[in-house]
Amino acid sequence: MSDQKKISYASVAISSAAASCSETHNAILHVPAGDGPFPLLVYLHGGFWKPEWTREATGSAAFLATFTSPPAEVAAASPLGPVATLSVEYARVAQDDPANSEGGGGFPGTQLDVLAAVNEVASLHRAGGEDGTAGAAAARLDLGSVFLAGHSAGGQMALWLGLLSALPAQVRRAAIGEVVGRSDGGPALAEVVAAGVDPAISVAGVLAIAPVCDLVSAAQEGLSDFHDAVPNLLWRFGHTAKEPAAPGAGLQHEAAAAACPVSLLRRLPPLAAAPRVLLVHGDRDTDVPPSQSLAFAAAAWGAPGDHATSLLLARESDHLEPVGILVTDDGSPRVARYRRLQAAMRHFVAAGVAARCHGMPPPEEAEARLSPLCCTSLEEARGFCAAATPHACAAATVAAIEAAAAGGADDGAAETLAALNRPADMARGLLRWFSWVGREPGMAVAAWVSQHMS
């Protein structure tokens, strides 16, 4: 029989308020029946690091079925042997008052949670145990064939962890450790970063779905519904609990680079190789634009090192479709698109497993199934992104408020304002975004914010 175990991991204590919490510091390990060893796919759900978006609320189990129990037509189109999965819950960030986030949420705590969860599996694997225990289940894993997968904010963390595993210790310390060591966690966090991923674990690939790859540009654009998700993630380095920081204050911009997959990719030494990466993004994603994936692909393809990065840009797909959220088996085009994406993601994992099993590059058969689905050039990818549906950003909200104040709001601006069903949250978010970009709001926006601040 297969084993499914809920395991706990110890959070890195950033403060007395950041003690491990059973609701946030746990993961569900599923290991197929049989002796193994089985490759492991680690899944990190999305939700812009917000508390309401939990593992259950984001449909993590349904997505993981792509690898454990896919529809018959997907399994037939994309052969893949049994795969174990680890669905990780992690501390997230209270939006109104980030400093009161439960379980130490926010960078670096949130990202180090994911590191701790993966390393806990390695510890269980070494310890083993009697039948029926988590140790016995973990002992049947192939830790040399670990895949990291994540959606949206989870994609950021999957890429971050994958790059952490590839960076030499001295670069980890310089690129990440020196920054996080100046947070309230102190030098101890720098040592956690320098230690990195357990040496028993080898990251065979990263599957990043609609990922936030470039935190620097995501903060600058004001991605997320209230435009402040990245500043909130980085609250330890800048703004205080309920008031934004003065423009340029703190270390937020340095922290953004330390948490940013694109920035870390550029820190890899010339002869170092990043893990294999598959980026999946839809052209109707209005939450995280496909330009985020393009930024990572462009950096990988232009780097001196050997970075095997593939970019799959899915036409007609929005932010949720690539992980099956709101996809029902009704025979609609949406279902057909998702089935194709499921097969592509299985091709990617199958190629990595084949490379591990045979000790050589993935066989042509596995690559041949995936390659035709992916972009072949930067020019093709840039054209796709240029034609994508406009995404939500702070500039669009600001423009809508200003147009409404001037009495000239068009249909698009009116629609933007009509969607603001939580104006107090938007007012807070706009203040934090203006703080990040070092600007003062104009008169119309300042008046709107003042009117709606709670």
TrEMBL record:
InterPro entries: AB_hydrolase_fold, GDXG_lipolytic_enzyme
One MF annotation (Gene Ontology) recorded for this entry: hydrolase activity
Gene source species: Emiliania huxleyi
Protein's recorded name: Alpha/beta hydrolase fold-3 domain-containing protein
UniProt keyword annotations, A-Z: Hydrolase
PANTHER family the UniProt entry points to: AB HYDROLASE SUPERFAMILY PROTEIN C4A8.06C, KYNURENINE FORMAMIDASE
